[in-house]
Amino acid sequence: MIIKLNNSWLLFSLGTLLFWGGWSFLPKIALQILSPDGLLFYEAVGGLLASLPVLFFLNGKLEKDRKGIIITACTSSLNIVAILAYFYALRLGPVATIVTMTAMYPVITLALARIFLRERMNRLQLLATTMALAAIVLLAG
What phi and psi values does residue 62 have, to the nearest 5 degrees? Predict the structure, then answer.
């Protein structure tokens, strides 16, 4: 299979991979100094500061769809709980195992997409998902 690097989604995906790789590792170092709760607070402050340039470039013109805002608020709540759980896991365990295990979250996304959006997986994707589930079991053991 040849990967075409002119696909903008692929470039954004690779950028996400790199940034999340750093994001996954840096808290382990910060947790040597801060509590998971403190780390979450300062990460939220960083997120707020990072959102200000976005607001500036949009000239203050954000969408105001009620349903979209509610879904986004739920997304943010899930993210905050997940980040806090991740920070506590990092404080208590090995970063390599924790990062690998939590990186299996797309398995949950696949299940939700199947249930709520009726998306289907082909045989290869189903095999990969089964292997990811097996990896979670092996990592936990």
Answer: -95, 150
Query: Residue 115 and residue 109: Cα distance in Å, rounded?
Result: 10
Q: What is the pTM of this model?
A: 0.77
* Averaged pLDDT, groups of 10, the chain, 141 residues long: 66 87 92 96 94 88 91 93 95 90 88 91 89 86 74
Q: State the amino acid at position 48 in one-letter form.
A: L
User: In angstroms, what CA-CA distances link 79 with 15, 94, 137, 138?
Assistant: 20, 21, 23, 25
pLDDT given for residue 4 in this prediction = 58
Q: Which residue has the tokens 């998306």?
A: 119
Query: What is the distance between the alpha carbons of residues 77 and 53, in angstroms, rounded to a whole number?
Result: 22
